[in-house]
Amino acid sequence: MSTDSRAARARSWMTGACMALCLLVPATTRAQETPDTSVAGLRQEIEELKQTISALERRLADLEPTEGQAPAPPATAEVTPPPEAPPAEPAAAQAPPPADSPPVPPAEPAPTEEPPPLTIVSAAGGKNFLNLSLDGLVAAGTSTAGDVGALEVGGHDPAQRGFTVQNVETVFEGAVDPYFRGQANLIFQITPEGETQVELEEAYVTTTSLPYRLQAKAGQFFTEFGRLNPTHPHAWDFVDQPLVNGRFFGPDGLRSTGLRLSWLLPSEFYSEAFLTVQNSQGETVTSFRGTPGETLFGRETGERPVASFSDLLVVPRYSASFDLSDTQTILLGASAALGPNGTGSSARTRIYGLDGFWKWKPVNAFQGFPFVKVQAEVMRRGATVGATEDLPAASFSDWGGYLQANWGYRARKVVALRIDRVGGDSGEPRDPALGARWRLSPAFTWFPTEYSKLRLQYNFDRGDTLQQDEHSLWLQLEFLLGAHAAHKF
What we know:
This protein has helices at residues 3-32, 39-63, 148-151, 243-249, and strands at 131-143, 162-177, 180-190, 196-207, 214-222, 255-264, 270-278, 295-296, 299-300, 313-323, 328-340, 348-360, 371-385, 394-410, 413-422, 437-449, 452-463, 470-482. It is 13% helix and 41% strand. It has two domains: 3-93, no CATH class; 131-482, Porin (Beta Barrel), CATH 2.40.160.10. The chain is mainly β. The strands form two sheets. The protein has a 16-stranded antiparallel beta barrel. A two-stranded antiparallel ribbon has the order 8-9.
C-alpha cells in the first residue's frame, strides 16, 4: 500500500475519531450531570476536549507530506488500522440538560504566559475612589473696633469691615488601598491687603485594618485636643472661633506633623484613647517652641533644636460617649498637651482640658430636626519660662473656656448662643497681652439645603486688653461643591 493510501486512511480514521469524541464526550458528560454541576467543571471539560482534538490534528498533519517533500518509501509490511470508533449516539438519545441548570458559557481564552496586572479594588467598590470637594466661607459685616484683626483671635475669623474670604477649602479624600485612607486639605485665603494665600492645612493617611481595635494616623493633621480644635471652620456652629482656642493654640489651631495612635476600647459604650506625638515648632504650635523671634509669656522665643524625645509635643486624650435615653446622648473628654517652649533650654508648657457635649433629638426627627445640643470646653495652661538679661526664670498660668448651645427649632433653622471667657495670667511680671476678656455671641443659621448656609451673628466684646466695649455684626455664607467627608459626632 502506498504512503498516500495510508495517509488517506489515517485521515479518515482520525476524522471519525474526532467526530466520535465530539459527540460522545459531551453526551456522556451531560447524561451523568446533576443539577448541581458547576459551570467551572463544564469549562474544564471543554478545555480538555479542545486539547485532545488539537493533539489529534497535529498527529494527522505529521502524516501528510509537506509541499516539495518526496513521499516516504513504502513500508515492508501493511499496517492494519485500528478498529473504527463506534457510531455516536443520535441527538435524540442524548440526555437533555436539567431545566434549571445555567447555560454553558463560551470557553475562556487560554491564559497567557504573563498574568494580568493586579487591580486593587477600594472599599467603596471602585478601582479609583476619590472624594473631591470645595467648601467656601465668605463673611460680610462691620464692627466698632478700629482693628478688627486684633479683636478677632482666629486666622479664619472676619478680618476687616466689609467682606472677608474666611476660608476656601479643597478636600481630596478616599481609599488608598485596602490598608489606608488618605486625605489632604488645601486652604485658600485672601488677606485684607488683597493677597492670596495658599496653605497645606492637612495631609495624612489613616489605617483601616490594624488588629485589636487600633488605628494609626500619620502626616500633617489637627491635634486631637478637645472638641473644636480638630474640626474645620465650615463645621463650626459660629462665625468665629472661641477666645480660648485663639489664645492657647494660635490663629490656625493646634496642628503639626506627626503620628497619632488610637485604641477603641472593647466596652459596651463608646470609649477611645488617643496618643499623638508631633513636632513642637512652627506657627501652629504657638504655646510651645513656636517660631523664633515671637513673644510668649512676655519673653522672646529663640532657637531650640530637637535633642531628644522630650523636645516633641505629646498629646494624650480620652473620650467616652453614653446614651442617656433613646433621645439623649452625652460625650465627655479629657486632653493634655505637653511639650517644650522656646523661651529657654529647659522651658516647658502644659495645657490641660476638659470637654463635654450633650444632644437631644426626638425619635421622630425628620432630616435631623428638631434638636438641642450643648457644648463646653475649659482649659488651663501652665508654663515655665527661661531667664533673660533683664528677667529671671518664672512660672505662668492662665485659663479659658466657652459654653455654647444650639437649638434647631425647625427644619434647617437654628438659633445659638455662646459665652467666651479667658482669664489673665498669674505670673510675675504679668504679660499685658494675656489680660482677661469675655464675649457674648448670639447667632441664627438657615440652611437652604445641605450644601449651603447663611449665618447672622452678633458679638459683644469686653476685656482688659480692649480700650472700650466693642460691637460686631457678621453675615456668613457657606457653599459646598462635591462630596465632602463626613464629620465626627
